[in-house]
Amino acid sequence: MHVPDGFLDVPTSVATAVAAAAGVAAALRGARRELDERTTPIAGLVAVFVFAGQMITFPVGAGTSGHLLGGTLAAVLAGPWLATLALAVVLVVQAFLFADGGITALGTNVVLMGLVAVWAGWITFRAARSILRRSSRAVTVAAAVGAFVSVPATAAAFVALFAVGGQAQIPIGTVLTAMLSWHAVIGVGEALITALVVGSVVAVRPDLVAGARGVLAGRTLELREGVSAGEGATT
């Protein structure tokens, strides 16, 4: 999914750089509400995990590559604002130290993986979780659904950018078919990995999972109501 230098024209690259800067600035403000003694170390661990996961790439064609995005995983574990910041940091390190993704295309990659992947996955996760029963398993299933949706959504966003400012002489239909078909497959793998990681953390330390906090609050309330009713019956 990393876009190389010169793949999009200058106006499109500049526009995505501005959008990326605005998104990161918004994330810096939003992260203030998410940062505490639990989320800070989780955000660091998420960044390391995503960085390692993104090193495994699959050639997609048309000069691009596909790989695990990690946007939904980061959002569910640390919250969407911190996830955006974590992905932005990962992409900066990859671009400047590993030449993975173009430096002039850094804004494009941040928009795609730090904004679209994170927020498409997070919104889908929240929607799926609201439909499912309030339980730890619902968090895992919703995370998998969000992860799957985030991958083709990001691929579609790239195709839209390519349609506006693509420099390669490749039919847009060819790019669309290649990106969506490959990333639908990658989305299945991302959903499985996301479900495995989120499910494991929820089973051991659910209090560390940002996406499970509403569920935990509901379960705590139900437990307290049950205890109160039992005490009343005993007396």
Topology:
Elements (H helix, E strand, L loop, with lengths): L9 H22 L7 H16 L2 E5 L2 E4 L3 H8 L1 H18 L8 H26 L4 H30 L6 H33 L8 H22 L1
Antiparallel strand pairs: 1-2
* Overall shape: globular
Please, what is the average pLDDT? Answer: 85
User: What is the class in the CATH system?
Assistant: Mainly Alpha
CA(first)-CA(last) distance: 63 Å
| Secondary structure tally, helices | 8
Instruction: Work out the number of β strands.
Output: 2
Q: Structural class of the helices, strands and pairings?
A: mainly alpha
- CATH architecture, by name, is Orthogonal Bundle
Main beta sheet: strand number and arrangement?
Answer: 2 strands, antiparallel
- DSSP helix fraction: over 70%
Series of H and E elements: HHEEHHHHHH
Fraction in beta strands: under 5%
Question: How would you write the strand order of the largest sheet?
Answer: 1-2
- Low-pLDDT windows of residues: 220-230
- Rg, rounded, reads 19 Å
Number of domains: 1
The CATH topology annotation reads as: Arp2/3 complex 21 kDa subunit ARPC3
Keywords:
single chain, 235 residues, mainly alpha, Arp2/3 complex 21 kDa subunit ARPC3, two-stranded antiparallel ribbon, 8 helices, 2 strands, 74% helix, 4% strand
Question: Explain this structure to me?
Answer:
With 235 residues, the chain is mostly helical. The radius of gyration is 19 Å and the shape is globular. A hairpin with a 2-residue loop joins strand 1 and strand 2 (64-67). The chain has one domain (10-234): Arp2/3 complex 21 kDa subunit ARPC3, CATH 1.10.1760. It has 8 helices and 2 strands. The protein has helices spanning 10-31, 39-54, 71-78, 80-97, 106-131, 136-165, 172-204, 213-234; strands at residues 57-61, 64-67. Helix 2 (39-54) packs across helix 4 (80-97), helix 3 packs across helix 5 (106-131) and helix 3 packs across helix 6 (136-165). The protein has a two-stranded antiparallel sheet with strand order 1-2. The longest helix has 33 residues, at 172-204.
